[in-house]
Structures are given as structure tokens and as C-alpha cells.
Amino acid sequence: MAPTTRVVRALWTGGCALAWRLGGRPQPLLPTQSRAGFAGAAGGQGPVAAARKGSPRLLGAAALALGGALGLYHTARWHLRAQDLHAERSAVQLSLSSRLQLTLYQYKTCPFCSKVRAFLDFHALPYQVVEVNPVLRAEIKFSSYRKVPILVAQEGESSQQLNDSSVIISALKTYLVSGQPLEEIITYYPAMKAVNDQGKEVTEFGNKYWLMLNEKEAQQVYSGKEARTEEMKWRQWADDWLVHLISPNVYRTPTEALASFDYIVREGKFGAVEGAVAKYMGAAAMYLISKRLKSRHRLQDNVREDLYEAADKWVAAVGKDRPFMGGQKPNLADLAVYGVLRVMEGLDAFDDLMQHTHIQPWYMRVERAITEASPAH
């Protein structure tokens, strides 16, 4: 396979009730009150009678204040407890993550690599990045698995290699939640040889969308079985459908293809001559390849329409009543979809996507959540 072809194929392949009861309940007479206190009731209000008339209001106000104070107390206590639990979980996660030294071998513009970075950043996992030269791929010569991303995790004296973006994410999430040894977790995702629709032998991984958790651990992550099933469904959708819309859209026209490869060369690991060759020959090659991809995946004549429909389908699945598919914070499906779409930033396809669909508010929420969580690299 020609070097340029390898380049182009490789790079683009988230007290009130108590106050009401106290204030609204009829108040009994106090036993210390004497009949003399009511003697002036017929001819006018005596001082005791006047005080009695105002006492229900005073008692009601006092009860309301007491109920409000109790409500504030319980609210503050709940928030403090929530913060404590969050701090405990963060401390456990920090303890686990501190055991790992992570190195990510990637192409920056690869959507699968972008998915992994989104996960690592959101979970505040420090990692080193090694940008792989897409022609020579000397940086991953240690690996018989020749695709990116590859994640190498050093845990004490043990070093583990994780392949495939979804396996990397599932294995690390399982590790963070369960604390099982990473060496053991990897065995839950066996590599299997298969033949794809084009008759080419490929490597697939079993269980790659599953988190290997017991029932108690699963309850920490998911609100119910439906939430777990939903997350798995949309993670697979991101891999099986959404990612295949990227190349036909960013290489849709010769001008867009050239702009895309200009970005790839700037962000990738290329020499001066190699970069110039990749930019112009790669753009021309990918423009032609994108047409074949369009036919293979049965996309519409205007491939933007498929991209728009996918984005709005995702937004509809998230719904209006939650900020993320994961509820109040992004789950693995949110991070996967965000990671795939992020590689188009700065290109016409991304601008069109934001303008012609309803995905931008969700996208910005995920971006903000990742920014707030991620450590500086």
C-alpha cells in the first residue's frame, strides 16, 4: 500500500411541610391564662385579650421561621453530605488513577483517538501523548496491533497494552469503579479474528461496550438497567454509524479536502517534505476515497443531510429533560459522540453542523464539563 494511501486511510477511519403543620395547627389555650384576662372582651380588648388576638400570628410566624430554619439545615446538610461523597469518590478515583502511568499513542485527528482523550480528560486521568507518524508508524513498532489508539498503562512493575478505543474506555472505567487489577480486567475483553463485509480479516473485541461490574458497583454508575442499555446502544452507534459520516463530510469537495489535510498536517507528526506531499496528494486521494465511502455506507447525495439527521437523532435521544444522556453529567455515550464530532472543529462541516442542527447546546455543555474536570497537560 502506498504511503499516502496509508496516511489517508489511517487518519480518518455527559422544612416547608413542617412549617405548614406547625403554623396551621390551632393553638390550645395556655393553662396560666385566667378568666380575668377575658373580662374586658365584651366592652373592649384588655391587654391580655389583645395579646391573645395576636398570638396565633406570632406563633405561625415563629413556626414558619422554625420550619424554614430546619429546611435550610437539612438542605445544607444534604449538600455537605453530597460534597463529602463526591470528595470520597474523587479521593478513591485519584488513588486508583495515581497508580497508573498512561501513554496514549494516537493520531490527533483520528475520531477514535479523540474519544479516548475525551474520556481521559473528563475523568481527570493524567496521560502522555505520543503522536504517531502515519507513514512509518515507528512509534508503535513494539505492537503487533498496528492501529491507533493504543494505550499503555504502567501499574507498578506491570505494563498493560490496551487496544481499541471502546475497550480502552470500558476497561479504564471498570478499573476506576471496581478497583480490580487492570491486568485482570483486560482479560474480559478478548481479541477475536473476524472477516468484515469486504472480506478482510479484522480484529474485534468481545464485550467492548460492557463495564465489568457487580450489582452494587453498577448501581453507583447507572440509575437502572435501562440507563446501562441506553449507554451501550449509543456508544455502539457512535462507532458503527456516526464515525463513518466524518470522512465523507470533511472531504466532501476538493476545497474541503485540502482544508482538512492542511489541518491534519499542522496537527500531525510530519516532516516538511512529507507534510507537503501528504497535504496535496492526501487531499486528492481522500476526496476520491470519500466518494467510495459515501457509496459503501449508502449516504445521501448531499452527505451533510446524513450528518444533520444523525446529530438531531442524538439530541432527540438525550431529550429536553436532561442536560446529558447520563443525566446531570456526561456518561460514556456522551463522551463518545462528543469525541467523534470534535475532530471536525475548525472545518466547514463542523460549522454547518452547529448551524443546521440542535446539537450545539449539548455539545457546549459536554465541552464545558470536560474543561472543568480535566487537568492541565
TrEMBL record:
Q: Tell me which GO cellular component terms the UniProt record holds.
A: Golgi membrane; mitochondrion; perinuclear region of cytoplasm
Tell me any Pfam family this protein matches. GST_N_3
Keyword field = Cytoplasm, Fatty acid biosynthesis, Fatty acid metabolism, Isomerase, Lipid biosynthesis, Lipid metabolism, Membrane, Prostaglandin biosynthesis, Prostaglandin metabolism, Transmembrane, Transmembrane helix
Q: Which InterPro entries match?
A: Glutathione-S-Trfase_C-like, Glutathione-S-Trfase_C_sf, Glutathione_S-Trfase, Glutathione_S-Trfase_N, PGES2, PGES2_C, Thioredoxin-like_sf
GO biological process terms, alphabetically, are: prostaglandin biosynthetic process
Q: What does this protein do?
A: Isomerase that catalyzes the conversion of PGH2 into the more stable prostaglandin E2 (PGE2) (in vitro). The biological function and the GSH-dependent property of PTGES2 is still under debate. In vivo, PTGES2 could form a complex with GSH and heme and would not participate in PGE2 synthesis but would catalyze the degradation of prostaglandin E2 H2 (PGH2) to 12(S)-hydroxy-5(Z),8(E),10(E)-heptadecatrienoic acid (HHT) and malondialdehyde (MDA).
Q: What is this protein called?
A: Prostaglandin E synthase 2
- Species of origin: Macaca fascicularis (Crab-eating macaque)
